[in-house]
């Protein structure tokens, strides 16, 4: 049997049986087998030879099939006895492997394939049992791709050669025929049947014709299936008879050697062979060729055949006319006729020629449109599929792959802008891989010259190796795996992300992955990724911190945003210039040994280096990474800088980008001073009204700043008043600022002596129960004894507590209400920073979770179990749109309310935030003084937050937004008042954190520490304090920086400034003229009707719940104030009353007592002391006195 089995490697790889054919063949086969088996079992004489006859009959009946059988189908229908019998005819090794099964069961598909049985039978079914001469021809001409390709290529060349020989014959035809053919009585049509052909040319054409006839006969033999009629009507066979058979006959007929043969028709045979060659190339080659190029080639070859056929026909038919034309003229005539209506310079004068022209035009109309349509469809499909990168990129080009379910124009624009904002990425190519087709807006974006040569789109799935190969994933520098936002259940999106990440890891294990997911529990499955951004972790922790540190969401968003500080510089608004300029600050890192900023402070304390680096260069040192690899925020005076330490600082630009160090630093200072002068100019009127003593003090301060700027030593410092030789103040009553030394000094921490509250109930430890696997170990304030689950529901009385509203609990501090439409594990990350161990117990705010659940539905038991260990955390059913639910949650006395939207509604894209915006607006109208922090799906919708049609200044911000868009800003909405105040946040702003991670690998870890998601031993923490009138003695931000560093080792990083909108603050000319009359008409209506009605609705609701109405007062907020953040202010910026200073406080030990820390402990006035190291610059007092004498 083995000798008669065809080569299994040459079998077709795919089965194309239809379902009906399978069922029909199964039925026929089972019928024959069952009849035979029944007869044999009855006689107890089962003979293997008869079984062989059954299979042989089946083989003969199925041998006519054009498609190979389904191997998996055979394993289910072949009886066990036949398998046993046929395995005896296979190799001994196969028999041995099958004999281990003892034939107690039917072999599985894998076993049969491994033993070549099913493949053997498949070959017999397809190509017949006998491997005779016909079978060998089939293998050589059809089955074997390579040999079939060679044969077809040879036939193609033969056909092309015959057409070339025809042209040679036409060009050499002089019209001289033999004597017996040159009779004057013959008509002109006589020349159509006889031509002048040289003997040598006849021999060559005859040899070519013999090869063609031979190939036709072979093809007839291997494709013959019992029908000669089908062969006779085959167009290929007819053309072979017309073009080759007359030449073969002329070998035996001497007079037929000059008969005309239309050999030029072989071009159509060559065209058909070319199509077959293209099929063989796609089958034999491992490289897939473009379908569009194939259609182009087919269309081009068809056009050539039409033109060539028409040229040869016109030339030959005009031999019978008076106007005889040559081959080139005929070619010109055909081209002109096909392309235009003809010029009339060349005409045909025979009826046959004219009829031929009409026929050719009709044929072209029929053939060409169908080919063009196929080409157009193929081109459009390939265009939708994107570019194929299998041929690679230019030498030296690096590329990254970005894969997501669906690309949006805004999202893609943000990614490309952020990615190419870094100098290291300028030579990169971005490959977009997505299974969805790009929309028109995104297509237009990619056609912009800025991106057209740098971005490649491929339509495909990351789950398919073929598409990953098209994207050249194996040679990519990195792969960004992003999650689609607009899906109602984000867990499904994370599941898709996990599979894509696994597929990329399987295909290219060495490629770094940067993955974006939603749920924290997803991180467990993609630990192999280089960087993982969990949106819920960052979003919830940022919103939680924003509740106790106002404006922090805006501060972090701008800090993670790549900008040059050019936003708002062309605006007329002073606060736009300051806000926009300082938004250009970013986080950078550098090794101290390679730094000019910090290289001089090796061996000094961290705080010492932070102050003097800010003073001399305007950079803020905030964190360090030692040899242990742990990042520490402000490790305090205990950390001594080493040459190998890597430090992290906030600056307008990184040190490596300063080509000319001194020149660039001076340029930055000049820009800072220019921006600072705007603020100082606005405060000039107040300074002129100050007393003369204040003017003298300011003059003294300017003199001292001038002296210090000229000093060369970096250890100089600012002091309020000069000192005499005895170290006493020259002027009494003026406080002094302690000097920042380079030694480890004990910081004087001023703490309140109040007793610890609930010291017997709250301890500092790790949470005993976590919501999800993979939670970072964070020490928090925890209860010694777990609360009962029933006590967590604040609005439902239980056996332990009979309270029904939050006001009845009499919390020591204002509560934070968190309104969520759906519960998720991410809420755990909102609680962690608010219950961190370093926050005093007295400052802990109660957290009330307002969950939009069904009445019978409760949160996840695991979630309730975890929050029951935290102090003062409750939950309740309700919606923020329901006033009664808000009153029960204690909205009247709340610190703030956080509105988070988890689900996604299937509405128009930008209307997804509609319900949230309307509800927040309702809350804002009823409780104007309540601080509402809202998460929006689309950042562009923040213009609707706290919308007031009568606030003309807020409405004018749209003009600035449009102007910033024209200037190319990626955050044109940054000057919208809700965003500048830090009351609005969009999660897609965190996407930039992932985009920068390729260059700043530390950024994700750093942000997690800053937000309190993780904790590192010996690391500080982020907090804030407010400047009041008594603190204005400190003067400037630089003096504040020095005082905090010297007294308590705290490092300020920014300011949240609230200013009154007046002529000193804003310069925009309000369009009051057209509003005055309208406002006057509606002033009474607004201030009384709506206010009274809203107040009445709220008070009635409180009476219904039995609450005290005195807790509510419907007073409108002061709309004459605006707030904004200033990142890393310059050294000379003046501190103003109401400023909220962001600081990174020095680390607190976990074992430290939970006493209430004075937030302004560093601003307590005390007499300064001289450093033993610097000795206050011995020439400082003398220089001061010299300048003072000169002024007098």
Automatic annotation (TrEMBL):
**Residues annotated as region Disordered?**
716-761
Provide the RCK N-terminal domain boundaries: 397-533
What compartments host this protein? Membrane
Q: Spans of biased composition, class Acidic residues?
A: 747-759
* TM annotation in the entry: 202-224, 231-253, 259-277, 297-317, 329-348, 355-372
Q: Where is the composition biased (Polar residues)?
A: 716-731
This chain's protein is named C2H2-type domain-containing protein
């Amino acid at each position: 049997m083995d000798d008669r089995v065809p080569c299994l490697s040459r079998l077709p790889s795919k089965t194309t049986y239809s379902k009906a054919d399978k069922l029909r063949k199964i039925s026929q086969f089972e019928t024959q087998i069952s009849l035979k088996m029944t007869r044999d079992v009855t006689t107890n004489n089962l003979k293997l030879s008869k079984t062989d006859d059954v299979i042989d009959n089946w083989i003969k009946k199925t041998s006519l099939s054009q498609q190979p059988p389904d191997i998996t189908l055979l394993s289910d229908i072949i009886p066990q006895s036949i398998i046993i019998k046929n395995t005896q005819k296979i190799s001994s090794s196969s028999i041995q492997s099958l004999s281990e099964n003892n034939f107690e069961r039917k072999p599985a598909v894998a076993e049969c394939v491994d033993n070549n049985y099913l493949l053997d039978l498949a070959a017999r079914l397809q190509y017949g049992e006998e491997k005779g001469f016909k079978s060998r021809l089939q293998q050589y001409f059809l089955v074997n791709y390579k040999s079939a390709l060679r044969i077809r290529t040879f036939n193609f060349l033969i056909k092309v050669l015959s057409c070339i020989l025809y042209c040679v014959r036409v060009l050499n035809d002089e019209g001289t025929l033999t004597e017996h053919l040159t009779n004057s009585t013959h008509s002109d049509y006589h020349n159509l049947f006889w031509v002048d052909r040289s003997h040598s040319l006849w021999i060559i054409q005859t040899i070519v014709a013999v090869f063609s006839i031979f190939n036709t006969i072979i093809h007839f033999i291997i494709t013959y299936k019992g029908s000669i009629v089908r062969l006779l009507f085959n167009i290929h066979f007819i053309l072979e008879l017309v073009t080759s058979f007359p030449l073969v006959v002329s070998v035996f007929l001497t007079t037929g050697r000059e008969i005309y043969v239309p050999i030029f028709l072989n071009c159509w045979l060559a065209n058909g062979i070319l199509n077959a060659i293209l099929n063989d190339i796609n089958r034999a080659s491992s490289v897939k060729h473009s379908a569009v190029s194939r259609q182009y080639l087919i269309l081009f070859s068809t056009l050539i055949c039409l033109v060539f056929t028409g040229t040869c026909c016109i030339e030959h038919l005009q031999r019978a006319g008076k106007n005889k034309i040559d081959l080139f003229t005929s070619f010109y005539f055909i081209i002109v006729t096909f392309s235009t209506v003809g010029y009339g310079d060349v005409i045909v004068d025979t009826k046959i020629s004219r009829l031929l022209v009409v026929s050719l035009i009709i044929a072209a109309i029929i053939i060409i449109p169908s080919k063009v349509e196929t080409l157009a469809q193929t081109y459009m499909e390939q265009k939708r599929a994107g570019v194929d990168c299998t041929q690679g990129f230019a030498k030296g080009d690096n590329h990254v792959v970005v894969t997501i379910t669906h690309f949006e124009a805004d999202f893609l624009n943000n990614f490309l802008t952020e990615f190419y904002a870094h100098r290291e990425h300028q030579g990169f190519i971005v490959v977009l891989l997505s299974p969805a087709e790009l929309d028109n807006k995104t297509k237009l974006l990619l056609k912009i010259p800025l991106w057209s040569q740098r971005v490649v789109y491929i339509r495909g799935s990351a789950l398919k190796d073929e598409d990953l190969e098209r994207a050249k994933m194996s040679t990519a520098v990195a792969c960004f795996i992003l999650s689609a936002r607009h899906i109602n259940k984000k867990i499904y999106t994370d599941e898709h992300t996990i599979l894509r990440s696994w597929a990329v890891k399987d295909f290219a294990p060495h490629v770094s992955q940067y993955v974006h997911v939603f749920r924290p529990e997803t991180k467990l499955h993609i630990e192999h990724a280089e960087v993982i951004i969990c949106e819920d972790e960052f979003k919830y922790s940022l919103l939680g911190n924003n509740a106790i540190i106002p404006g922090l969401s805006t501060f972090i968003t701008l800090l993670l945003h790549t900008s040059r500080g050019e936003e708002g510089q062309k605006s007329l608004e002073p606060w736009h210039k300051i806000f926009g300029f300082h938004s250009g600050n970013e986080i950078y890192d550098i090794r101290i040994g390679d730094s000019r900023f910090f290289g001089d402070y090796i061996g000094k304390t961290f705080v010492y280096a932070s102050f003097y680096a800010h003073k001399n260069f305007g950079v803020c040192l905030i964190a360090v990474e030692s040899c242990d690899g742990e990042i520490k925020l402000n490790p305090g005076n205990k950390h001594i800088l080493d040459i190998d330490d890597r430090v992290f600082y906030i600056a307008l630009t990184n040190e490596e980008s300063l080509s000319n160090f001194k020149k660039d630093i001076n340029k930055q200072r000049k820009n800072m001073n220019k921006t600072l002068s705007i603020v100082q100019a606005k405060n000039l009127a107040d300074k002129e009204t100050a007393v003369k003593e204040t003017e003298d003090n300011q003059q003294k301060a300017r003199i001292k700043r001038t002296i210090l700027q000229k000093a060369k030593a970096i250890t100089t410092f600012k002091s309020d008043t000069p000192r005499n030789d005895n170290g006493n103040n020259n002027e009494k009553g003026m406080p002094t600022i302690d000097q920042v030394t380079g030694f480890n000094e004990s910081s004087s921490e001023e703490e309140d002596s109040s007793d610890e509250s609930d010291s017997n109930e709250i301890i500092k430890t790790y949470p005993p129960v976590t919501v999800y696997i993979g939670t970072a170990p964070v020490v928090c304030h925890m209860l010694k004894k777990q609360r009962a689950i029933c006590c967590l529901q604040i609005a439902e009385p239980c056996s332990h507590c009979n309270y029904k509203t939050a006001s009845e609990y009499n919390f020591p501090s204002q509560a934070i209400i968190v309104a969520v439409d759906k519960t998720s594990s991410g809420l755990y990350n909102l609680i962690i920073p608010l219950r961190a161990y370093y926050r005093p117990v007295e400052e802990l705010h109660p957290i009330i979770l307002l969950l939009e659940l069904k009445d019978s539905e409760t949160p996840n038991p695991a979630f309730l179990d975890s929050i029951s260990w935290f102090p003062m955390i409750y939950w309740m059913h309700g919606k923020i749109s329901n006033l009664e639910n808000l009153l029960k949650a204690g909205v009247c006395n709340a610190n703030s309310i956080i509105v988070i939207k988890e689900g996604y509604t299937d509405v128009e894209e930008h209307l997804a935030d509609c319900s949230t915006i309307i509800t927040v607006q309702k809350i804002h109208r009823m409780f104007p003084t309540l601080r509402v922090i809202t998460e929006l799906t689309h950042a562009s919708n923040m213009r609707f937050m706290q919308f007031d049609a009568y606030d003309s200044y807020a409405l004018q911000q749209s003009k600035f937004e449009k102007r910033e868009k024209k200037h190319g800003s990626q955050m044109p909405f940054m000057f919208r008042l809700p965003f500048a105040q830090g009351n609005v946040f969009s999660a897609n702003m965190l996407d930039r954190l992932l985009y920068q991670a390729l260059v700043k690998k530390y950024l994700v870890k750093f942000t997690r520490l800053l937000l309190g998601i993780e904790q590192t031993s010996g690391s500080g923490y982020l907090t804030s304090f407010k400047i009041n009138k008594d603190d204005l003695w400190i003067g400037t931000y630089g003096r504040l920086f020095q005082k905090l560093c010297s007294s308590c080792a705290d490092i300020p990083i920014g300011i949240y400034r609230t200013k009154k909108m007046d002529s000193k603050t804003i310069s925009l000319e309000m369009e009051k003229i057209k509003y005055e009359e309208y406002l006057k008409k509606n002033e009474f209506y607004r201030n009384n009707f709506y206010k009274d009605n809203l107040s009445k609705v709220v008070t009635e609701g409180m009476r219904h719940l039995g609450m005290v109405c005195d807790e509510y007062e419907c007073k409108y907020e002061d709309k004459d104030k605006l707030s904004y953040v200033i990142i890393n202010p310059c050294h000379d910026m003046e501190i103003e009353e109401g400023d909220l200073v962001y600081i990174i406080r020095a680390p607190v030990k976990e074992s430290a007592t939970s006493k209430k820390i004075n937030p302004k402990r560093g601003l307590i006035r005390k007499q300064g002391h001289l450093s033993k190291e610097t000795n206050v610059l011995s020439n400082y007092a003398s220089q001061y006195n010299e300048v003072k004498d000169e002024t007098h």
